[in-house]
Amino acid sequence: MMxxxxxxxxxxxxxxxxxxxxxxxxLESQIHIxxxxxxxxxxxxxxxxxxxxxxxxxxxxxPVKIKPFKEICSSEETTEEKLIALAAWMKERYGSxxxxxxxxxxxxxxKVKSKEKRYVLLNxxxxxxxxxxxxxxxxRCKARARLLRALCEEPKLDYTRASKxxxxxxxxIAPLVEQGLVHIQQDEIYRIPxxxxxxxxxxxxxxxxxxxxxxxxxxxxxxxETPRPVLIHGVTGSGxxxxxxxxxxxxxxxxxxxxxxxxxxxxxxxxxxxxYGWFGDKVSVLNSRLSMGERYDQFRRAKRGEIQIMVGxxxxxxxxxxNLGLIIIDEExxxxxxxxxxxxxxxxxxxxxxxxxxxxxxxxxxxTPSLEAYSRAVSGEYLLTKLTARFExxxxxxxxxxxxxxxxxxxxxxxxxxxxxGSLEKRLRNNEQSILFLNRRGYAxxxxxxxxxxxxxxxxCDVALTEHxxxxxxxHYCGYERPRVEQCPSCGSPYIxxxxxxxxxxxxxxxxxxxxxxxxxxxxxTTRNKGSYEQILSxxxxxxxxxxxxxxxIVKGHDFPDVTLVGAVAxxxxxxxxxxxxxxxxFQLLTQAVGRSxxxxxxxxxxxxxxxxxxxxxxxxxxxxxxxxxxxxxxxxLLMDYPPAAHMLSILAAGEDEELLSQxxxxxxxxxxxxxxxxxxxxxxxxxxxxxxxxxxxxxxIYLKHQEERVLMDIKDKAEKYIEVNSxxxxxxxxxxxx
Length: 739
Ligand code: ADP
Ligand code: ZN
Ligand code: ZN
Hints:
Blueprint: E1 3-7, E2 19-22, E3 36-41, E4 46-56, E5 71-72, H1 79-94, H2 98-105, E6 115-121, H3 126-138, H4 142-153, E7 156-158, H5 159-165, H6 170-178, E8 182-188, H7 209-223, E9 230-234, H8 240-253, E10 257-261, H9 269-279, E11 283-285, H10 292-304, E12 309-312, E13 324-330, H11 347-358, E14 361-366, H12 371-379, E15 383-387, E16 398-403, H13 404-409, H14 418-429, E17 433-437, E18 447-449, E19 466-467, E20 472-474, E21 481-483, E22 496-498, H15 503-513, E23 519-522, H16 532-541, E24 547-550, E25 563-568, H17 572-575, H18 582-595, E26 605-610, H19 616-623, H20 626-640, E27 647-655, H21 658-676, E28 682-694, E29 697-706, H22 709-725, E30 733-738
Helix pairs in contact: 1-2, 1-11, 3-4, 7-8, 18-19, 19-20, 21-22
The structure holds adenosine-5'-diphosphate (ADP) and zinc ion (ZN) (2 copies).
Protein name: Replication restart protein PriA
InterPro entries: DEAD/DEAH_box_helicase_dom, Helicase_ATP-bd, Helicase_C-like, P-loop_NTPase, PriA, PriA_3primeBD, PriA_3primeBD_sf, PriA_CRR
Organism: Blautia intestinihominis
């Protein structure tokens, strides 16, 4: 006998409720996951339609109690069916529940609200509102004060956002409404995220010879019976985007649809504008700032065939297009393509899977491909194409590596090396722009003792606290705060202080060193408000400042033609992370950063400050030599059996009871060791995760390494069953993670 798990309703809340039905014998050979079948449902046995989300030979009730379903209704595969099949694949591949996978894949169908609530400020101006907020704070009406302050920043505040992010409730708001200070407005929402009519259409420019060559190679591949995914390895500014656009144009002309994934951070107004300029109302753009309703509307438009191109971050991958032709993943190496929630999927892998299921193509692009993608391209699993020169042969910037140890020896204790200072001076003299970046946020980074070396840590999270401008030490995981300390809590030494390398610190040094320079700072603190990110970028693009200081977010994907100097202030910050990918991350970050310089007509320069000038990731970033980096890094991965040289599966567990967690993970560790013995499985741990404790929840991890993915899949399945049947794991939250 065969049984089918069936969901009746694909609205979001109902996805974890499936019902088992018997598969009529004659249909056993035809049925597969995703199909629509008609079932007798409820007490009256009314006929309903349901989706098959799982098939098995094991009945969940006494077999006589399980009703058979009637028939298969699918005539041709609907979009939902394909997405449900994709979810089933993700469940298997990443070890999540089917409900989690379905929620990731199916467009959220919430009750469509044609009206959405918003606040508006009423009858008082900003100054008054702020004064009132101050009073309310004194009177301990903090929530009300918070709302007023938020409204000063954003006069139309979204109702759901306010209740989520500010913790507002109706009771908090009511008095303000009664006093006539705040008014809840019922707005008809016109849910198109950008008014595309206002953007003039542009023609695509014709391709250069090199770009044309890449286009031809791709088209040739697409003629084949089983086309492979394509990787475009193109240096920054070589025109990968131009190639994407031609491909999109062609696929759309064939009546098919295109999904373009772009890292969230690059989804700027500039990017969006370009897409609307080229494709007008054929295109829609998703980003995380859209409300659920807006997102759902865009998915609905896609399903109805009103748009042909969806641009967005990771989640746009699940756009319910009915005739998908192409998936493009720009900046394929970006970490944001990996989901941190179960199913912990990677967009690249899911894209390849979805494309295979639906007969679509995949094109990946990057100046610094991930080791995963590049090794597949080298082995021939992907087609490798290259753009080795910048558009119009603009030269790559001249790069200097500055050894900070030498600076110290020469008596220079400033954050700015002599080299970087000189280069900045030159830019200011010539009225050119510079970017200085730091892989860190906050004022002065962590605080440590110069006598014993201890860093001040959050008592709940086991991570270093960050010193902020107001003198407080803050935990960036849970928000814990404590006042500054005068003495080291461990040894009593008075020599305690910050690691002087925050973005605010750099800003201050710049003000002192170059009093006339106009400096803009962009980091987490200055971009918390909606729109401020865009404001800073456009102000810098309009040359309203000479120097832009920021965290790594400023070096990703922006095009500032007047920037001729990029400085990496402390390149080592990312090199010291406890992660086997830290050299790769450092190389990528530095290469992308260097690529920001000299994008216009004037040649560029880059300065990398570091304590490890001899490290290969710094050396190869300086020479922009990807292949050399790849060889070094791959030999390290081979030596250590790290991906992509081997496959790695992490078992992540979290629990409030440390004892219980440790016990459970010890058992699990021994279990996987035992069943993995015959495969010579490599088991590491259990150990505390790199952040061992977040918000009083403990985290432990076991890593499994093996040459064959199949072996890890098998172990994962067995471990899942083991966890399910042993009550010791009930209070633990366990996830699997492929890397
Ligand atoms: P990438 O995506 O590889 O970083 P872009 O596609 O953004 O590169 O191109 C870099 C710059 O060169 C852009 O300003 C772009 O307009 C210009 N460019 C590239 N190729 C062409 C072309 N064929 N015609 C006109 N401009 C081009
Ligand atoms: Zn100390
Ligand atoms: Zn904390």
